Amino acid sequence: MKYQIAVAQIDTQSNLDANLDKIREMTAQAGAAKARLIAFPENAEYIGPNLAEHAHPLVGEVSQFFQDIAVKHNIYVQCGSITEINDYGLPYNSSLLFSNWGRLIAKYHKIHMFDLDSGEMRVQESRRNEAGDEIVLCQTRIARMGMTICYDLRFPELFRILAQEGAQVVFVPSNFTYDTGKAHWETLLRARAIENSCYIVAANQCGQKPKYRAYGHSMVIDPWGEVIAEAGEGEELLLAEIDTEKIEEVRSKLPSFANRRTDVYDLSAAEIHVYEE
């Protein structure tokens, strides 16, 4: 199966309405281009102070917004991620996938929290978000899709588990900083695609944030590891073609799944939540 997807690189700031306007406009552009799906970056709806105060319920204004634009433009919408209210503690960093008729068909809570205290830089995601504990796949009419968010990219075992369970496309909505992005972004994305013979769809933030500059360079990587679409450092809408037959072609040339030594190591014990469209 071949179809076109869109990847939206945006500069999210602290004005919710302005951010949603950008999302609406880019979804309209993707729909006009006949894309079947559009993917957004991490924290697509809000980046600014007091994150917990700007969290949203799973069923509420923001999720309804994504449902509405999916229906209006007849397109799957991978919202990147939003800050979701958690009734039992800190909010979740949640990635949501909506069908083209507006149904919420998958939800993933970011598993890996970026906690760093190097002396030069101090970041503690675990102080503002609750970590998820569930690996998520979604079987849709156009592909079997794996869900990750940003820092998850540095944990290859997560991607291998998703691929073992049949993921053809893996989303990596991100907010990579300029320095780490310049050093590692493309290398990590291409490695995850090559290791698992799957498409990697990585929408990244761009622009100056309150405490750092985001890297941009959103990408779509094919199963051979080729960058088939790449943005610059400003806001941009990418278009790329997904060809699910290419996944099987690459896996037949490089049968790394068949050559695994599950008698020596095994990742099959992980529990996975598979959503069905």
Any overview of this molecule?
The protein has five helices and 18 strands. The protein is of the alpha/beta class. The chain has a single domain (2-276), classed as Nitrilase/N-carbamoyl-D-aminoacid amidohydrolase. The strands form four sheets. Strands 1, 2, 3, 4, 5, 6 and 17 form a seven-stranded mixed beta sheet that branches. The chain has a seven-stranded mixed beta sheet with strand order 16-15-12-11-10-9-18, with helices on one face. A two-stranded antiparallel sheet has the order 7-8.
* Biggest beta-sheet profile: 7 strands, mixed
Number of helices: 5
CATH topology name:
Nitrilase/N-carbamoyl-D-aminoacid amidohydrolase
Roughly what percent helix?
Answer: 10-25%
Give the overall pLDDT as a whole number: 96
What's the total number of strands?
18
Q: β content, as a range?
A: 25-35%
Shape: globular
Keywords for this entry:
seven-stranded mixed β-sheet; globular; 18 strands; alpha/beta; single chain; Nitrilase/N-carbamoyl-D-aminoacid amidohydrolase
